[in-house]
Amino acid sequence: MMSNDKIESVSLHVLPSLPYADNALDPVISAKTIGFHYGKHHRGYLDNLNKLIAGTEFADLPLENIITRTAGKADKTAIFNNAAQTWNHTFYWHSLRPKGGGEPPAALKQNIAASFGTFDACKKELATAALTHFGSGWAWLVLDGNKLKVVKTSNADVPMTTGMKPLLTVDVWEHAYYLDYQNRRADYVNAVLDKLINWDFAAENLG
Ligand code: FE
């Protein structure tokens, strides 16, 4: 009771709504996977973050500030991991959409062609990054300076802390696909890129 009172006295981070229904990505990503991934994993990171920052210098900071202020600090690893994973998952949900895939909007496609040669080359590089990442992590399309790039990060790591602007991401932690695809990460990655990836979101982030 007392600890609840204490937690309620600070401004808590709240779990953002999913941008679609929990079954809207079916059959590529099932409602069951979303139920665990959003309802348990994402919420879990957020709840942990709120507990870890209560009463600390991070209590009233926006999520992005918590991430940049704790990145690379050995004594702040738990706060960084939970803050970054909270941010990463919200960004991932927006990187997907029902009836996604297809081709990017014209301006983004031009940028992609300038950086990768062709859209297919970009998509292939993104798929390869997602497939070859060893262990838990993320594959990203980012803006690095004035060039688009594909990068991978491990565990909770985010491209912002190394000066890159994320445009979209694919979660390749096993919890993202194991209920639907078991060990077949390639099937998950290819289906996401072909049917769900939200190029409009990437275009918005490119600005
Ligand atoms: Fe995840």
Question: What can you see in these coordinates?
Answer:
This protein has 207 residues and is mostly helical. The chain folds into two domains: 4-10 and 29-95, Orthogonal Bundle (Helix Hairpins), CATH 1.10.287.990; 106-206, Iron/manganese superoxide dismutase, C-terminal domain (minor pseudopilin epsh fold), CATH 3.55.40.20. It has nine helices and three strands. Strands 2-1-3 form a three-stranded antiparallel β-sheet. Helix 2 packs antiparallel against helix 4 and helix 6 (119-132) packs antiparallel against helix 8 (185-196). Residues 1-9 have low confidence and may be disordered.
- What is the average of the pLDDT values? 94
Bin the helical content.
Answer: 40-55%
Number of helices: 9
- The CATH homologous superfamily of the largest domain is named Iron/manganese superoxide dismutase, C-terminal domain
Q: Mind telling me the CATH class of the largest domain?
A: Alpha Beta
Element-by-element helix/strand order: HHHHHHEEEHHH
Bound molecules: fe (iii) ion
Instruction: Give unreliable regions as ranges.
Output: 1-9
N-end to C-end Cα span: 46 Å
Percentage of residues in DSSP E strands: 5-15%
**Number of domains as seen in the coordinates:** 2
Quantity of strands, as a count: 3
Task: List its salient traits.
Helix Hairpins, three-stranded antiparallel beta sheet, 11% strand, disordered N terminus, binds fe (iii) ion
List strands and helices in order, with pairings.
Elements: H1 2-8, H2 31-53, H3 63-70, H4 77-95, H5 106-116, H6 119-132, E1 137-144, E2 147-154, E3 165-171, H7 178-181, H8 185-196, H9 199-206
Antiparallel strand pairs: 1-2, 1-3
Fe (iii) ion binds next to helix 2.
